[in-house]
Amino acid sequence: MEVVQELFPGKVISKRGNIEWPPRSPDLSTPDFFLWGFLKNKVYSNKPRTITALKANIRVEMAAISTATCRRVIENLKSRLEECLRRDGEHLDDVIFKK
């Protein structure tokens, strides 16, 4: 963090930086906490070489997400929202800032 602070004085957006990271950030956004990482692994598994192939992979993998997986993600979101309420809107440290 010291090096980052030196390179970007007064501009570091982080829980431990100059600009507080808003609590509403990725810990409560299903695309951020689930979808992008999940899709990235699957979409790039066959190393698409063109935009057309990449788009086709995205469509196939989006369609392949099961109802059960969607239910688990929604349950996880529900527990994150409840935890956010318990913490009065503060960060979900154990989710985002794992040690």
Q: What does it look like?
A:
- By secondary structure, this protein is an all-alpha fold.
- Helices cover 59% and strands 0% of the residues.
- It has one domain.
- It has 5 helices and no strands.
- The protein starts with a helix and ends with a helix.
Question: What is the strand and helix layout of this fold?
Answer:
Layout: H1 2-7, H2 30-43, H3 51-64, H4 67-86, H5 93-96
The average pLDDT value, as a whole number, equals 82
* Topology, number of strands: 0
Question: So what's the oligomer here?
Answer: single chain
Q: Kindly, what is the distance between the CA atoms of the first and last residues, rounded to a whole number of angstroms?
A: 15 Å
Low-confidence stretches: none
Radius of gyration: 18 Å
The percent range for helix content is: 55-70%
Helical/strand content category: mainly alpha
Please tell me the total number of domains: 1
Portion of residues in beta strands equals under 5%
Characterize the biggest β-sheet: none
Number of helices: 5
Order of helices and strands: HHHHH
Instruction: Give the overall shape.
Output: flat
